[in-house]
Task: structure prediction
Amino acid sequence: MSFLKILACSTAAFLLFAVGCGGGGEEAATQEEAASEAAVEYVKVDPATAGSVSGKVILDGKAPSNPRINMSAEPDCGGLHDSPVRAEVAVVGDGGALANVFVWVKDGIEGKFEVPSTSVALNQKGCIYTPHVVALRSGQVLSVTNSDPTTHNVHPLPLVNREWNRSQTPDASPIERTFSRQEIMLPVKCNIHPWMRAYINVVAHPFFAITGADGSFEIKGLPPGTYTIEAQHERFDAQEMSVTVGASESKQADFTFSAG
Amino acid sequence: MNLHLHRFALFTAFSTLCLIIAGALVTSNDAGLSVPDWPLSYGQLMPPMIGGIFYEHGHRMIASFVGLLTIVLAVWLWKAESRGWVKKLGLAAIGAVIAQGLLGGMTVIFLLPLAVSVSHACLAQLFFCMIVSLAWLTSPSWQRQREEPGPRLPDRGAPPLRALCLTANAAVFLQLLMGAALRHKGLGIIPHLFGAVVVAALVVWVMARVGTQYSGRPEILRWALLLNGMVMLQLVLGAGTYWIREITEGAVQPLLPMVLLTVAHVAAGALILAVSVILSIQVHARLGHSTGDMGKQGVPAAT
Result:
């Protein structure tokens, strides 16, 4: 066989291999999402017996300093800020109150719950994703907007959902997408502005919360039962605890992360 | 010999090295998907060159230029070159650059799947070797070797130096493959470190053989010395790349020192493969089979 034939065969095999290893299209994702919306019987929690779990998340130890973001190479972004911008890796308030912690019922929930028809917002403002951590239900619409005078691209990096990558010009309409599978702390980035990062939490049920600036959270409307509550933060190791909630009972579940 | 053709091949090789550097900048700046469409960029030939788009679209522009240079080089070779196999190598380079463009498009369309990204990185190295080989095969030095080949030297010792050089070529390519897989998060650092040790050992072995047996043959010695020097430099660059990532862990990347060191490491890897291939070509052209063809007034097997 001549050198050229060998090279042609090798190249063809190379390309076929590469195509074979390529990801799936978005059409498949849409079909998959449509299939998951088949009629099912939803669980209704009795408001008279529903309980709640609330608590506070604290960071123990010296809070790490958030690295500074250098936007100098991107005037459209740098000009939007009067002071240096820092990444929101560990947002720590008074007394070690830790914000942006995703707290959810990891285990103990049974049945399917109706998906809200409202969307969850994620904005790009000042070349930063706002809020830094969002949460929504599987099948609920995530609406991504661009408030900046520059183009962004929205690129979630899921492990179990379908990956997608969409650009958004300043005047573009919101990007509306859903995620069909439960996935916690799913990163989303912008490849145009590599410092931009947010985390999306997709949950199969409605029992979750994100800590605010004071580190507090509340998960409401829980049916009586024993649950595993997990707290996840982008920087620190996840923590969990078991909580039993009686009828109309409010339980406290505080978490302490170690700054290490 | 056509000196203009040689200079054009050299320019194409230099442009290809620039293209590899531009590709490394895309990966280091995490800009691979900053342009979500292909072959156009945001539906245009020239999108606004902001942020990561500068790197991704810049890479596409240089790639188009190198594609054009490759076509011109192949046509020129076809018309001016007397050696059929060199003509065919020019055609093969066109095939490689087209395949490389398609792989580049697939990385965008399929959102950087590991196999496609690593294939794109590795084919870039092979394509660079083809162009560098064409530049060498059209050079005055190669022409002199053709015209005054002299006696072929015996390839004494076990393993033969020619086999050792080919093994080094394969090891360097595998090391580049592992480096690409590491860059695209498909492999850990350990295989790449192990590969570095293997490549360094092979290259030192080649140098020792050349130094002891062919120290009077500058056409082999200088390439072996260059290869050794580059591998030593590459070890330093590799250590620097690892170190800068360790000390900037937690920082918002990409930081300029990380980008510069990593890109230099990638570019040096491409040059090492190219130099190792030229050394192999030289060794195969100048050495005969063990002692059997000693004294043969050898013209290199493929001239």
Observations:
- Residues 291-303 of chain B have pLDDT under 50 and may be disordered.
- Chain B touches chain A through 40 residues (CB under 8 Å).
- The longest helix of chain B spans residues 256-286.
- The beta strands of chain B are 153-154, 287-288.
